[in-house]
Amino acid sequence: VLWVSNRDGKIDGFDWSVNPDLEEALDLFVKSKGWSVWRDGVDAKDGVETVVIVKGGRDGRNGFFFPGFIDTHIHASQYPNAGIFGSSTLLDWLKKYTFPMEKSFGAEEEGERAPPQAYTVYNKVISRTLSHGTTTASYFATIHVPATNLLAALCHQRGQRAFVGRVCMDNLVFCPDEYHDAFSEESVSATKEVIEYIHKLDPEGKLVAPIVTPRFAPTCSHAALSGLGRLASSYSPALHIQTHISENKNEVLLVKELFEKSEGYAHVYDETGLLTPRTILAHAVHLTPEERALVKKRDAKISHCPASNSALGSGLCPVRTLMDDGITIGLGTDVSGGYSPSILEASRQACLVSRLVASQASVTTGRETLSVEEALYLATRGGAQVVDMADQIGGFEKGMYFDAQLIELGPAVESISHESSHDVVLGGTEDTGNVDVFGWENWEEKIAKWVWNGDDRNVRAVWVSGRLVHKRGV
Ligand code: GUN
Ligand code: FE
């Protein structure tokens, strides 16, 4: 039983004792990783300040509440390209697919409103990620101020927790014609415009916050990088920052060429004031031990994007090594380098990639392998730490925002009558997605089935700050 305050959407209290079945699930997760899963029943509590907002999973549907997923790295503007990348790798993919798509978010004329397409695409991205249980997303938009502001406004209106960043890129060596900042000052001034817009939209930053977004070192001048570093630290508290790092070997070589004087890729960001405790570094596939030590020292965070790293052939991110170094890690879909907007898919890919890392180790111990629980930890608690909100989201402790998804795996197969199982075949009454529960599984096994075969058909409803933001029909 769970109570959520109607004033601030935060969890006000709970009582685990009501449903003994829950304890098995709870035990498993609380013990192993300090996070929780439970199912069924949310009832009324007396009093004015708290209301019931959740009526638990339906009877016998193998349902449970789970903390909303946190996508620590996603390009909203690239969503129309999801799945379209052919056999390209990062640098040619950017030129062939990505820059042309992003460019199309520009207004016809300077200072004009965002094009209708921005409205359509951004609404679709929000709908799609919510339907997959993403309650918080850290978005890259494009270089265009009107469209970036529109993305922030739509997240605010639709109720998705979000960081929204205007992409900065002013280095003509790598940027395409007609899609770049005119000069480094524009990177800073246009970012400022977006920050001011978002601060007006959501003065307390309860739902939507700005994030300073230099695209990555190869597209940015030293002046732009340091200007953006100064900009982020000029606010109190300092603004969040997001960028890419060491995703692809050719990219790493390019950074070596472009920033000859720097010791490494991470050092370029450090020298320009961009390596902070509120910085999200996407990918980090090829960091050197010295760079990892620097990232740890600055307490910068890493967004692991396994689906993208495999799709673009970027490499196998050594997540266990990063963890052993004490670096904070969350998961990112990296749409559309990543083909899927689902953090459940990212969790599953994180598990698979870790097994490949393990298979490549000189001594086979399996230590590199991530468990399902660890992947789900990265998808929730880890992500919360990455966006510096570990005390507010990512779990169900008292005082946290009620950012949650209600998952239903569906009725056990043995409990479905012959007639209704016929319906399933015909796509009739009960769409349990790709998961079949037979009835004998314990909670650990049910959760494993969810991670390996679940999808948005298992997400029945989603809440952010206690507000219902997505609901699936029967
Ligand atoms: N590096 C620079 N820009 C991008 C981008 O849009 N996606 C990915 N995956 N990597 C990048
Ligand atoms: Fe990316």
TrEMBL record:
This is Guanine deaminase. SUPFAM superfamilies: Metallo-dependent hydrolases. Binds 1 zinc ion per subunit. One of its GO terms (biological process) is guanine catabolic process. Keywords: Hydrolase, Metal-binding, Zinc. GO terms for molecular function: guanine deaminase activity; zinc ion binding. Residues 66-469 form the Amidohydrolase-related domain. Signal peptide: none annotated. Its EC number is 3.5.4.3. InterPro entries: Amidohydro-rel, Guanine_deaminase, Metal-dep_hydrolase_composite, Metal_Hydrolase, Metallo-dep_hydrolases. It comes from the Eukaryota. Pfam families: Amidohydro_1 (PF01979). Pathway: Purine metabolism; guanine degradation; xanthine from guanine: step 1/1. Belongs to the metallo-dependent hydrolases superfamily. ATZ/TRZ family. GO terms for cellular component: cytosol. NCBIfam families: guan_deamin. Its cofactor is Zn(2+). Catalyzes the hydrolytic deamination of guanine, producing xanthine and ammonia. It catalyses: guanine + H2O + H(+) = xanthine + NH4(+).
